[in-house]
Queue: 3 jobs
Job 1
Amino acid sequence: MIYGIISYLRSLLFLGFFVTGLFVAYVEILSKVYMEELSLLYLMLSLSSILITVVYIKYWEYILLPYSINLHSQFSHNTLIEIRNKRTLFLDFFILKNNLKSKNSLEEIYTKGLKRFELEYANLVSIDLDMYRNNREKILHYLGIFKDFEVSINPKKNKSVVLTFYKLPIYYEMDYSLFKKDSIFLGIYEKGFYYRDIDTLDHHLIVGESGGGKSNLMQLFNINFLFNLNRFNKMYMIDLKGGVELKRYENVDNIEFVSNIERLDILLDSVLQELESTQKFMLENNIRKLDKFRLLIFDEIGAVSVYPDKKIRESIFNKLSLIAMQGRASGILLFLFGQKIDSTILPTAITNNIQSRILLKTSNDNNINIIDLKDNIRERISTKEIQDFTKGRAIIKNGLTSDKNLLQTPFITDNLLNNILKIHSKDL
């Protein structure tokens, strides 16, 4: 409280000096008599005092936040010998609050419960970004929004920081209106709709325990692909554990369903041949970028690692390693889904070449490691523990930009999926 009062009095003093300076300039420029214009000075000082008071009343809790949580920078004195070992504290100060609005009317409908706002703080010396990130929970507790809100913390220049507070929806259904040509819709995040441009797509690794929404997310990817079917030459949907999730797509043009591991081994040979011929074609014709892709969508990649025939296991993983290393440039993309990922399930030669990653609810440290979050509080995206994520809540890492975001994926209803499959059925 005392720091807030001191800050208020200091602001009054600074503004008083500023107003007085303006008054002096006004008198000198217009050659006025000071005593005759004192009433104007009193009016200006009164109005500025009222303005400062209103601002402090309106934003009191935000102004006090750095003082209450002790967010500050330390400056070491290195010039004079007698004070060399002393350190001066520079407390951060509040700049502004900004309420964030949706970009368009459609986004406004779906992000109505998002409730986003920003707080900006600055420091005379520099901002200690790690201090803010290490105190995420304290900040949310102080503001009384710990249960509902998340906060992302990012630098703004070198002496200020922006705290973006947002509340993601827990549940919403996917709708036709959310599809977009040449883009993949993946959910809602702090800035609104999360889309991935098809031209920037790369290999994806999606990991999450049972009940976290992994199968639902796989269907989300698939119906996005179907909506943009003109951008994909071929899709291979691979399910070695019975075909429960992917068999329904086998009656769609340009989709081949694979449920047998021996058949998969043969299929990967043809994919590698296609990769080689595409590389040759691009080289001969000086083509650097392809407009269409081939996709390998693999439900539960861990099924390969437990297959008893070692020769077939190694053959498949060796081929997937080549695709992971060379496929992106040739328009062949991997989408690997699994409940658990480590070196015993998926060779590092594959995982190291898959940069885009999505992590859903999990308590497994190896899973958490795939998105570079374990024991790294600076990179933590959510104040919630990952094992406590609700269904569909995910952390996504963009392989192109390395940005990490928290998002809520939509629920795919049977009605939506069946309608889309009906549209693309070979029987029509």
Job 2
Amino acid sequence: MFNKSIIVLAAGAGTRMKSDTPKVLHKISGKPMLYYSIKEALKLSDDITVVLFHQASRVQEQMEKYFSNINFVIQDHANYPGTGGAVMGITPKYEEVLVLNGDMPLIQAEELKKFDLDATIVMSVLELESADGYGRVIIENGNVKKIVEQKDASVQELAITTANAGIYQFETKFLLENLPKLNNNNAQKEYYITDLIEMAISQGKVLKPLVVNEENFKGVNSKVELADAEVIHQNRIKKEFLKAGVIMRLPDTIYIEEGVEIQGESIIENGVSLLGNSKIINSHIKTNSVVEDSIVIDSDIGPMARIRPLSELNKTHIGNFVETKKAILNGVKAGHLSYLGDCSIDEGTNIGCGTITCNYDGVNKHQTIIGKNVFVGSDTQFVAPVNIEDDVLIGAGSCVTGDVKKGELYLTRAKAKTIDGYFYKHFSSKKK
């Protein structure tokens, strides 16, 4: 199945990001940038090596949350800095090795398959309207003849609009033989992988250019570029769901993270955020609602509702300004202005406006269990742990502090009393 090894370069600090977070850990659609490079690489190879240096342990720890079948190496940055130094000391498993960058989150496996050309080196190039700021690639008779940096280019070379996209596939034998020949005789005192191009040309090797899509090979070096890349990635995600039959109202206003699943005939309205590994099945998520790491099946949510992690909603109506957290709701109606956390509520139950499950005692979380066909009056507080059995009526304004048996009415309101003329007495006393 696999015929190439892949090296992913992820050692840089990314100073232009102006952040303490390593560049490759900055997120796009809920996942670190490096996640996407590895994800696509694994579609092509079972021999993936990620090169780390800056905050290496932090980066490795984050990636191991998602992947268990990749290798990590630490670049000897003190002695061999630069992109060439990054690939030293690695012995690829296969006869071809593809070198990727960890800051290219828009890369796709289908594009990477195109590197399978008969050549010692296949290098990615961009055909641009203006190549200003890029190294130029000189191509003659379909082969790469030279790479020239902009600062070193002649007037004729500056007119060339073919630029280096920064991804390479090498014959492993050539790479291992020539890496020891690299030197750092340059202004930056670094070992450059691009010097291998010059070596291959001088040795009469075949170097093939591969024209690639700029969008897929877009590098991220700043917060501006991060935001631009996320827009592209979001559009990809939403396009796939639209093609699968999901209805989206004003899709440009919707945010969907990598890992979300939407199935069946679902409707996602404007301003909705679907986060984490949420799963939406045959459901209607209304305007400005948030669903995070939760499952919603045959239900309608919102508008302006918040479904927090580990909630499971089935055949349930959640109205405006209702918040759930770790809530298992089956056939429930909660129309508005309620908080339902650490609870299990069964079918036919109606949750009145302003209901709160008081799940936290300052030390531990406790569960509220509510059975079938329970009517909960407005402004009710359940002080967990409590167990409300089936067919129970909770009077409005109650504070439930203990279990309630099947068929009971529970209420804690004091008997009302009136004092005739008290309004006038109260305010007249204030004027004196």
Job 3
Amino acid sequence: MSISGAPYLPVFVLADDSAAADLLRVELSQLTGWYAPPAIDMPSRLARLFWGHEAGLGEAGVSALVDHEHLMHALRRLADSLVTATARSGGFVFVDVVEDGELLGPYVRRVWPDAVVVAVARSVPSDRLAAASPDLVVTAGDVIADPVAVARRVAALGDAQRLAPSRLPRLARRRATGARRRVTASPLRDGLVVVLGAARSGTTWLHRLLSANSMIAGTETGETWLFPDVAPVWAEPIREFAGDAATLSAMRVFCDDLLVAMRDRVAPAATHVCEKTPTTAWQLPVLAQLYPDAHYVHIVRDGRDAALSLALTRGHDADLGDAAREWVEAVSAIRAAADGLPRFQQVRYEELLADPTAVTTQLWSWIGVPATDQSMAELHSRTSQRVTPLPARGEIGAGKWRSLPPADRALVEQLAGPLLQDLGYEEVGS
């Protein structure tokens, strides 16, 4: 199944020289009347979602949730929603300057097979520009010397593409502006469960226990990287371009699409999806707008144990002070955002460790999924298997920080002590 044409003609200017590309964008707008707002580099902002997280294509990130065909269609729908939210009618041409990403060429061609692609090279096109199989290659010198002539060449390509028979039905359709649409209800409703916590605080284990219930779907590790990876779409240039309401609505449709597809693949009978990407803590303000009815579970571990475990995981060269600072920053960010979350619970790692069955079944009840015999049997199996995907597990358990040398303990407590006390942890400074 191929991606059909959009209600607009995309024209992407791949740039080795951004100044020349911007000049061409402005000239195209003046010469043709094409819609060419200040460059927002939308393909680059969406590219991370396609190509996956830093771990690489197919290893992590959104690209690992669903098949790539489904993802490409979801990305195209997201882009089309954002672009058409700014338009008063269909049948227009949208011009954007694209500057970033070595894999951007093939990406643009796969998600926008109907696009006109122009490469502006400094002299000889780079491998990145050549990979896009551009319809036209010009140099920055060509654009600077005669921008009108270059703009006319691009306009001729655009006009030819707009008149292609396969494009006429779509270009003729008028579209309502998305800026005036209200955010629609999520098909997940309150079916999203988000596990939050600082690194090495038991988020993987808690996700594993929660997803022992057949009504809660989760990936093997619990990590989707969906919300950290979608965050660039919420960046100010996009919101200014499409408007807050349209951006929020488009993002929610996109996230819903992928999460539901993941749920249907992992556990078709499930009613809920559980995710625990560590850096989601930093996207909570946006996430709370996307999914205000989700269930948010914050697992808190003694910061001294968490810092020790993180340092041990990273190896002998790790800085214990840096680990303590990371714990403070993550926990503080989650607590600051928690006030705006109607469904929020905090659990202690130490309590989960002492009685995982009681804590997990209480959370199931709060989430609204039954503790069936099958789920309880799976839960009991998982409580005895403290499995983590990390190559180095660090320290597991509670109170391991007591083995720290006095100087190391003093350093951690100097950094984390006030927050530890606020959370009710004892023996700080004793």
